[in-house]
Write a structure and sequence with these properties.
By secondary structure, the chain is an alpha+beta fold. The protein is about 50% helix and about 10% strand.
Length: about 425
């Protein structure tokens, strides 16, 4: 057994250090051991129970007895939760009205205002723009014979598309990515004081920028999502400025982060598989299947947490008091051998394809239809243009366990 983790089947307790390279570079060895012994286990490093089975994760994502927010029901004192840190006040403010953390009725109201922009029929209209952008980026490096594909291709596409949807200039996309990356570092296990300070500073700069854009839209409304959020009403209510800022930052952060990781992870899987590129992108249906298998095989988000909103006893006998945290292991569920044949094999032609990479229930990823189109167009276009694409060096994963993605993707052709 690898030294990256320890699993005790008798007690269903596990130890695995999220910041240890042997673990975050290959968490799937741990997931295999979990599936073989106890798909529900207590992860000592996090201090809560986790669920790795596909059936359990799918059900718990939809279970309304668990939620993303608890302070509307219990006090910090009751929870044993420390007071907010003064030096992360700006970062905390960006999270205050986040769709990821709100529960109904606030979540319902906010999501209703934003959802219209992301329904499939609307984002489908962006397909030509995404294809044009993909080709323009490839034009910029095709003659070089090689590139670091994340920075030159995987990052700009979703960053520019979501910026343009919201109504922000495309040339701001990489600055938005910088703020986002610095803020996302807060989700790491064992965050340092320096990281907290940097994430807070990025939050201040990001909020200041969005606030300036809001002031501009109030003077000159446009046909964009930012204007829509400022002017639309649900049951006679408009979003507050703080809600618009928080939602804009969430959409920008979530609108590129997971898509970038999925692009890199899936391209790595394809190039390492030796599969025929023409076959796996043969037509629209097969391209969709290839993207879904990429989302299943090497998911961009590995754990999502929930609070018990009431005392809960599950069918497996585990009980949770109100306020307790559980971890839903999305990537482990996607590799559940009881759900998928040859779960550890990348197979775009499989007939049992499915995944929980976008979540489920009321917090199902609002940007999933857009992400799917971006992934389908960007990857097919890349292999159409560069059929000789191959890895130049062995890719390594970033030291951020929750957000599972590559440091770099060096390729040549």
């Amino acid at each position: 057994m690898t030294t990256a983790f320890r699993l005790t089947p008798e007690t269903r307790h596990a130890e695995a250090k999220p910041r240890e390279a042997a673990f975050y570079r290959d968490p799937y060895a741990f997931y295999d051991a979990v599936h073989a012994t106890s798909p529900a286990f207590f992860w000592e490093n996090y201090g809560h129970w986790c669920f790795a089975g596909f059936k359990d994760v799918s059900a718990l994502l939809r279970d309304k007895r668990f939620g993303r927010q608890i302070l509307h029901l219990m006090s910090r004192e009751e929870l044993g939760m420390p007071e907010p840190k003064a030096h992360t006040a700006a970062f905390d403010l960006t999270e205050k009205y986040s769709l990821l953390t709100l529960e109904p009725p606030s979540h319902t109201r906010l999501r209703a205002l934003v959802n219209r922009a992301f329904v499939s029929r609307n984002v489908e209209q962006l397909r030509p723009r995404i294809e044009r952008l993909a080709n323009e980026l490839i034009d910029g490096f095709e003659a070089d014979g090689g590139t670091e594909l994340l920075r030159s291709y995987a990052v700009p596409i979703p960053a520019i598309v979501i910026a343009e949807m919201i109504g922000l200039p495309a040339d701001m996309a990489m600055q938005l990515v910088d703020w986002s990356n610095r803020m996302v570092a807060m989700y790491m296990h064992g965050v340092s004081h320096e990281t907290e300070l940097d994430a807070n500073q990025a939050s201040i700069e990001f909020m200041d920028y969005v606030r300036a854009m809001i002031a501009e839209r109030r003077r000159q409304p446009r046909e964009d999502l930012l204007t829509h959020m400022l002017t639309s009403e649900v049951d006679g209510e408009k979003l507050t400025e703080e809600e618009v800022i928080s939602t804009t930052i969430l959409l920008l952060n979530a609108g590129h982060e997971a898509t970038v990781h999925t692009t890199g992870n899936t391209l790595k899987s394809i190039l390492e598989s030796g599969l025929d590129h023409q076959a796996i992108f043969a037509d629209e249906k097969q391209t969709e299947a290839t993207v879904e298998e990429g989302l299943r095989f090497d998911a961009p988000l590995h754990m999502f947490t929930r609070y018990a909103l009431q005392d809960v006893t599950l069918d497996n006998g585990l009980s949770f008091k109100q306020g307790e945290t559980i971890g839903l292991m999305l990537a482990a569920a996607n590799r559940d051998p009881s759900r998928f044949a040859h779960a550890n094999t990348f197979d775009p032609f499989r007939t049992d394809g499915a995944n929980v990479s976008f979540g489920a229930g009321i917090h199902f990823c609002i940007g999933a239809p857009l992400a799917r189109i971006e992934l389908q167009v960007s990857m097919k276009t890349l292999f159409d243009r560069l059929p000789g694409l191959r890895l130049a060096t062995e890719p390594q994963y970033k030291n951020i366990y929750h957000f599972h993605g590559l440091e770099r993707l060096e390729v040549e052709w």
